[in-house]
Amino acid sequence: MNLFPYSNTNKRYHTLDYFYKNKFKSKVCKISLNAGFTCPNIDGTVGKNGCIYCSKLGSGENGGNPNEDLITQFKKVKKIMDKKWPNSKYIGYFQARTNTYAPVNILKEKYESILKLPNVVGLSIATRPDSISDECLDYLKKLNKKTFLTVELGLQTIHEKTSKLINRCHDLKCFEKTLKKLKDANIFTVVHIINGLPHETKDMMIETVKYLNNLNIDGIKIHMLLVLKNTPLEKYYKNNKFHILTKDEYVDIVTTQLEYLNPNIVIQRLSADPVKEDLIEPKWTIKKIDVLNTIDKKMNKENIYQGDKSID
User: Fold this and answer.
1) Computed from CA positions of residues 300, 303, 308, 312, in that sequence, does the dihedral angle turn out positive or negative?
2) Contacts of 174 by beta carbon, 8 Å cutoff, 6+ apart
């Protein structure tokens, strides 16, 4: 018997599927969209060339096609999902690049075009801590009153040396300031972190999670670092040959991180969806289901639950 309070399956952590089903009383599918935004870390506002791991699409994963309009992107993915989960509700996920980095009138046009579609119950907006202006925040507050809004903040690591190495171009104080503004506005906030960043130890990765557990975050996404073709990270990896985590090492780190996270924090992701043709390392990330199953098996075998160590 699974004793974890935030689960209706065999999972010993607070899954996004469980959260959505309890909130909306329905299966909810997130549909990834590419709205064609750029990034202040690309256009020279705070930096150039982006974070060293970013692909040309602004993500290491499958997402929307920037050559198609948002409605076409949405309907294409919805058609596929409807075959597996008919009668679902939907959340538009603005994923690629920095999705608050534009004038508010443009943001409003793009966001609300998706909100007008049938059975769309919310938006999830991925962005950077340095890219939510006061005007944008005011608009997000209004949006939060009319739909279920999630803002996803990229942090990746709390360690400033690593942050500089990966060219994040913002510091931890910037993240803290933006997170406080979002939480003061009662906006559901998810934080992205990356395991396996160059030269980080297991202890350093655990420290990032312990830090976040002491903040008022609502959810977290945990990724494995992906070395992708035609990125600055590809060149750095070839020249420095830093250690790439094995699957077993990654699973060990993730399960330990879960132990330190408060049970009410929603675990939105534990493994990436790399584009196979672009992936250099680690190859084991291609088999996402295998990674998730291995996490479940370890947690079952060792009787681990999310939050076991959250008050340590």
Assistant:
1) negative
2) 129, 130
What pLDDT is recorded for position 137? Answer: 98
> Which residue stretches of the chain have pLDDT < 50?
60-61
Q: Please give the Cα distance from 14 to 305 (Å, whole number).
A: 10
Structural domain spans, the chain: 16-301
> Which two structure tokens, joined as six digits, stand for 54?
């970013």
pLDDT digits (tens, 9 = 90+) for 152-180: 999 999 999 999 999 999 999 999 999 99
pTM: 0.95
- Residue 58: per-residue pLDDT: 57
Relative orientation angle of helices 202-213 and 247-260, to the nearest 10 degrees: 30
Amino acid in the structure at residue 83: K
- Give the span between the Cα atoms of 77 and 61, in whole angstroms: 15
> Position of tokens 């202040």?
40
Helix axes 172-184, 134-146, angle to 10 degrees: 40
- CA–CA separation, 1 and 219 (whole Å): 25
Quickly name the fold that domain 16-301 has: pyruvate-formate lyase- activating enzyme (3.80.30)
Distance CA 64, CA 123 (A): 15
Percentage of the chain beyond pLDDT 90 is 88
Gap between the terminal Cα atoms of the chain: 26
